[in-house]
Amino acid sequence: MRKREKACDPVNSSDMADASNKHMRLRFLSVVLALSFAIFPRYGYGRTSTHTHRSPQCGHRTVAEVIKEIGPKAEARIKPFFEQAGVSYPAAAISFVVLKEEKELEVWAEHEGKWVYIRTYDVLAASGGQGPKQRQGDRQVPEGIYHVVDLNPASRFHLSMKINYPNNFDVQKAHDEKRSNLGGDIYIHGKAKSIGCLAVGDPAIEELFVLVAKTGVNNVQVVIAPNDMRKYSPNADMASQPSWLPDLYETIGQELAKFRIRQGT
After folding, report:
1. Residue 163, exposed/middle/buried by CB under 10 A (0-12, 13-18, 19+)?
2. What does the pLDDT look like over 68-93, one tens digit per residue?
3. Strands 160-163 and 144-152, how do they pair?
4. Rounded distance, CA 120 to CA 104, Å?
5. What whole-number distance in Å separates Cα of residue 116 and Cα of residue 86?
6. What is residue 39's predicted lDDT score, i.e. its pLDDT?
7. Structurally, how many domains does the chain consist of?
8. Is residue 265 situated within a structural domain?
9. Mean pLDDT of each 10-residue bin along the chain, 265 residues long
10. Which is it for the CA torsion 8, 11, 13, 17, positive or negative?
11. 199, 124 in Cβ contact below 8 A?
12. Which of 138, 172, 188, 213 lies 20 to 30 angstroms, CA to CA, from 202?
């Protein structure tokens, strides 16, 4: 039987093992170096790589960057209203009272256990009419008692603040009626056009954005009413509205009763 030929310039088995071990060590070192660059912060120009990144392509900004950029001018415009009302800035808590029919957004600040009127902004755009939001695509602005839950410094509407629609009441009523797809992403924002949200213009949203950031989103309530129920009852066509709407309006009316110090209300 013919013997198998040896390979030319054969490599000793111990040499092969050494070469293999050396290769593995080099690969391991490369992996470690790559991971160290990915995981550990790199230092340069006084900042680490964990600093919040702003994408030049998307124009992303952080809340802190917005406050630094527009805060001084925005506060110079709104602080005099707080001073005139005798309320420190920022206040411990803030309430926005939105009146859909009047297209107004009132700012109230908590001071010594009561709500003090600060000022009113015009709502420049808001789709729909009287009546609550019930589903995605109905173009209605919600009605009820909400809270600000997020600040968006990179909004395509300049700046924006998200409210917690649907709230527990909205979800419960939808469950009772077996409705789904309630919609969401309801904002108070800049510019002068909107579908289902509340547009107040750029100067106003700058002031409100900075105010909320300084007050804290957890301390900001948003009451959205069909009209100024402190003066007159809603004139919505109740026949076309859900049966629970009178209960909702009673709740909103009770909340609005806390905001009666404003002259003429």
Report:
1. buried
2. 999 999 999 999 999 999 999 999 99
3. antiparallel
4. 7
5. 9
6. 38
7. 1
8. no
9. 35 40 51 42 29 41 96 98 97 98 97 96 95 94 98 97 98 96 96 96 98 97 97 80 94 96 56
10. negative
11. yes
12. 138
Task: For strands 114-122 and 144-152, give the pairing.
Answer: unpaired
Q: Which residues contact 246 (CB under 8 A, 6 or more apart)?
A: 238
Q: CA angle 54-55-57, nearest 5°? A: 150
pLDDT digits (tens, 9 = 90+) for 135-156: 999 999 999 999 999 999 999 9
Burial annotation 192-203 (CB, 10 A radius, 16+ → b, else e): eebebbbbbbbb
CA distance 183 to 192: 22
Residue type at position 265: T
What pLDDT sits at residue 263? 55
Residue 261 domain-assigned (yes or no)? no
The three-point CA angle 213-214-220 to 5° equals 65
Q: Answer yes or no: is 108 within a domain.
A: yes
What gap in Å lies between CA 130 and CA 235, rounded to an integer? 8
Domain assignment present for 67: yes
Question: Which structural domain range is residue 138 located in?
Answer: 63-227+234-256
Q: What pLDDT sits at residue 27? A: 57
Domain of 221: which CATH number? 2.40.440.10
| Tokens 């952080």 sit on residue | 62
Q: Which residue has the tokens 């968006």?
A: 152
pLDDT of residue 34: 46
From CA 223, how far away is CA 212, in angstroms rounded?
Answer: 15
Which positions are annotated as active-site residues? 189, 197
CB neighbours of 51 closer than 8 A, spacing ≥ 6? none
Q: Are 160 and 238 in contact (CB under 8 A)?
A: no
Total-model pTM: 0.77
